[in-house]
């Protein structure tokens, strides 16, 4: 075996070792930077960003960390400018748009955040978290119809998710009116069907049928007062 072949494998192992150490170090810089921002250690986050920016001067990930650093320092205009630049560089990256919405919410610009989320959902239609956030913003504006529409999109994406069904039922019940009350009861019943131990859904059925109170509610709960949560359900019904 030649000298080259004898030295080849140790060199490969050493190069791989140092390459792994290098990438672990870079990864740790990103993690430490985000943790420092969470702990309001802007000085430590700045050191990590400086080290990363020196190694990757044109990286969008590093630029995103810089924007987050400005965001943590309440320099919202600078952060928004950086996020706009990131969105222009990579329009398909949804995290940049979400951070922009977070900056708008931190400034209390609710209407601008709603507008930005609407534009975001035109591109990323299947993002249930964005629909939930948009529904909460509409609820803060007392726009129950649009909030219900957002939850309907979530139900279409995940029809077996009882959380979406309960939230949609709550909104319909809050809207009032016979039609909305009937829809709320239907959503509560579907949530209770998927999870018979769901007290929120069962109590929602009670509220939906309470005015006027009818025996259908009693019969429904009587059929579901079985299992480990039966005593709790009876107490709930008694109140």
Automatic annotation (TrEMBL):
<feature type="domain" description="EMC2 TPR-like">
    <location>
        <begin position="63"/>
        <end position="170"/>
    </location>
</feature>
<dbReference type="InterPro" id="IPR039856">
    <property type="entry name" value="EMC2-like"/>
</dbReference>
<dbReference type="InterPro" id="IPR055217">
    <property type="entry name" value="TPR_EMC2"/>
</dbReference>
<keyword id="KW-0472">Membrane</keyword>
<keyword id="KW-0802">TPR repeat</keyword>
<comment type="subunit">
    <text>Component of the ER membrane protein complex (EMC).</text>
</comment>
<dbReference type="InterPro" id="IPR019734">
    <property type="entry name" value="TPR_rpt"/>
</dbReference>
<dbReference type="GO" id="GO:0072546">
    <property type="term" value="C:EMC complex"/>
</dbReference>
<dbReference type="Pfam" id="PF22890">
    <property type="entry name" value="TPR_EMC2"/>
</dbReference>
<dbReference type="InterPro" id="IPR011990">
    <property type="entry name" value="TPR-like_helical_dom_sf"/>
</dbReference>
<keyword id="KW-0256">Endoplasmic reticulum</keyword>
<comment type="function">
    <text>Part of the endoplasmic reticulum membrane protein complex (EMC) that enables the energy-independent insertion into endoplasmic reticulum membranes of newly synthesized membrane proteins.</text>
</comment>
<comment type="similarity">
    <text>Belongs to the EMC2 family.</text>
</comment>
<feature type="repeat" description="TPR">
    <location>
        <begin position="128"/>
        <end position="161"/>
    </location>
</feature>
<protein>
    <recommendedName>
        <fullName>ER membrane protein complex subunit 2</fullName>
    </recommendedName>
</protein>
<keyword id="KW-0677">Repeat</keyword>
<dbReference type="Pfam" id="PF13432">
    <property type="entry name" value="TPR_16"/>
</dbReference>
